[in-house]
Specification:
The structure holds two protein chains of two kinds.
Chain A lengths: L1 H20 L10 E8 L3 H14 L3 E8 L1 H9 L6 E3 L3 H7 L7 E6 L1 E5 L20 E4 L4 H13 L7 E3 L2 H9 L5 E5 H7 L4 E3 L9 E7 L6 H12 L1 H9 L6
Parallel strand pairs in A: 1-2, 1-3, 6-7, 6-8
Antiparallel strand pairs in A: 3-10, 4-10, 5-8, 5-9
Helix pairs in contact in A: 3-4
Chain B lengths: L16 H5 L11 H21 L5 H5 L2 H34 L5 H8 L7 H12 L6 H6 L8 H27 L2 H8 L4 H12 L1 H16 L3 H6 L10 H11 L1 H24 L4
Helix pairs in contact in B: 4-8, 4-11, 6-8, 8-11, 9-10, 11-14, 13-14
Classes of the chains: A alpha/beta, B mainly alpha.
Chain lengths: 251, 280
């Protein structure tokens, strides 16, 4: 009986230890790990840049985590192990304060209308989004793309009555590609990345609201030099080429 | 009725207190207390943590703000409508599953219970591919000018889809354990099938129906994934409490926490009410 109890206790303790162990990363022999947090709109470009970085730095392993900028900021403030952060707007980078060692703008993005393939609702201009019966999906004002949308409405005096205020750009795109929305407002780069699944409609007022993307190494990075080298890659000519190919503008 | 002695999904035991005390007491292995306490703490501590996060000073203002009241009212309305729909659809389905046998019944049962284990986002996608504007049925609906996505109806449909299996599984279990003896007697006394169903079967499974409905209601109230995928998010139309909590959690954590607490309180009240109702 006692042995059984002992065994059970041992099992329980081992399980607890295993659970506790989940959080700590294994210390690789000579492998340098770099964790990059980046805005969801950077998913394709930063995945490519991370691969390039690994090629240039044998032994380095880049882990990327993509999400809404404000989500990522909250995670970093809560102690997530990020070494580099790239934000979709300056507002979220500013929230980090001193945690961001040296924020530098590396790209810009403007809004574009995305419609289902072939643009069945015949959207031609930004004003068309306010037409009666047009089902428009936008980002909620709490997230960067929604903030940009609200600014654009103020700039143009066009009052959009959306059928849905989504939590992220990808949620907006999902409603457009499924055909349930006539149009959605997303970034130029999202339309480029979506390829044939949507038809983009550029509008002349788009340059009135420009989102600037800052990047910074973070205070507390495991290897500050490695983190800065990643930032330098993004700012380099090669990095800028990857970004402009995806539709991003100059900062 | 040995099966009814086991507690149902709301923790209501079929035994009376006298039965509980009867019989020789069987020793409980003492080590069970440790993992049991761990399990209880695992659920309770996070609930306490969310309560501790509530900013008491601003709490009344946060939960009575127009947007919070709008979301709460929408959540309550849709959850009630969905629960009614679950009962209307679920009672016949459970009865057919429990009281008849036909080819492929096992398969039908497994399929209709599937939303229990599906990620809600997948349920939402399935609904979108069915009732969306280009969906299986939505295409035809669109032709006659009906669009379901982005409407409150879509919220109700999403909630019903994920909650219906909760009602069916509770009620079917209750029907099976109640047996068919009383129904057989009623039938031999000349009652027609509809009368038997209305006067004998339904009263017999009343507690099972109540607990199933409560679970379904609670599930509706907490629905998030299917709603956001299928219905979208617009204040007053499709933005229910859980969607509001999710949207506010980063920019306005105080408001998100306050709304969360309201959801917790409503859930506790509903379950408490149902447990109290067992005496009836």
């Amino acid at each position: 009986m006692i042995t059984k109890t002992t065994i059970s206790t041992a099992v329980a303790v081992t399980a607890l230890l295993a659970l506790a162990g989940c959080g700590s990363s294994s210390e690789g022999t000579q492998e340098q790990e770099l964790t990059v947090f980046a805005a969801a709109s950077l998913t394709d470009t930063f995945t490519e840049l991370a691969e390039e970085f690994e090629k240039d730095h044998p032994g380095a392993k880049v882990t990327t985590s993509f999400g809404g900028s404000s989500d990522l900021v909250a995670q970093i403030e809560d102690g997530a192990p990020a070494d580099v952060f790239a934000s979709a707007d300056t507002k979220n980078m500013d929230k980090l304060g001193d945690l961001a060692t040296d924020p530098q703008d590396f790209a810009s993005n403007t809004l574009e209308i995305a419609t289902p393939p072939g643009n069945p609702a015949k959207i031609k201009a930004f004003q068309d989004l306010a037409k009666d019966g047009t089902k428009v999906v936008v980002c909620a004002v709490e997230v960067p793309c929604g903030n940009a949308t609200a600014q654009m409405e103020t700039e143009t005096g066009v009052d959009i009555k959306p059928v849905s205020e989504e939590q992220s750009v990808s949620d907006v795109l999902a409603k457009v590609t499924s055909g349930d929305a006539d149009a959605g407002l997303v970034y130029v780069t999202d339309v480029t990345a979506a390829g044939d699944t949507v038809t983009g409609v550029e509008f002349e007022e788009s340059d009135q609201v420009v989102n600037t993307y800052p990047i910074s190494a973070l205070d507390g990075a495991d290897d500050a030099d490695l983190a800065q080298e990643f930032v330098d890659l993004v700012l380099s000519e090669a990095g800028q080429k990857v970004l402009s190919d995806a539709g991003f503008g100059q900062p | 009725m040995p099966a009814s002695a086991s507690p149902d999904l709301l923790g209501r035991s079929g035994r009376t207190d006298r039965q509980r005390g009867a019989g020789p007491s069987v020793g409980m292995p003492r080590w069970l207390w440790f993992p049991a306490a761990l399990a209880a703490a695992f659920i309770i501590v996070p609930l306490v943590a969310i309560i501790l996060r509530v900013d008491l000073a601003s709490f009344p203002a946060l939960i009575t703000s127009p947007s919070a009241l709008e979301a709460l009212w929408l959540s309550l309305r849709t959850a009630v409508a969905s629960t009614v729909l679950c009962i209307v659809l679920g009672v016949p389905l459970s009865t057919i599953l429990a009281r008849t046998s036909f080819r492929g019944q096992g398969l039908v049962r497994s399929l209709v219970l599937l939303p229990l284990v599906l990620p809600p986002v997948v349920s939402g996608l399935a609904l979108l591919y069915t009732f969306g504007r280009r969906g299986l049925l939505g295409q035809s609906l669109d032709l006659i000018g009906i669009q379901i996505t982005f409407t409150t109806l879509a919220v109700v449909m999403a909630q019903t889809f994920v909650a219906l299996p909760f009602l069916v599984i509770s009620l079917e279990g209750a029907l099976r354990t109640s047996g068919t003896r009383y129904e057989a007697v009623a039938a031999t006394l000349g009652a027609r099938p509809t009368t038997v169903f209305r006067r004998v079967t339904l009263p017999l499974v009343g507690p099972g129906l109540l607990s199933g409905s409560v679970l379904a209601f609670a599930r509706c109230l907490g629905e998030f994934g299917a709603t956001i995928t299928f219905a979208g998010n617009l204040p007053g139309v499709t933005s229910t409490m859980p969607l509001q909590v999710y949207l506010l959690r980063v920019d306005d954590p105080d408001a998100a926490v306050a709304l969360s607490l309201v959801l917790v309180v409503v859930a506790v009240a509903v379950i408490g009410f149902a447990r109290h109702g067992r005496a009836i």
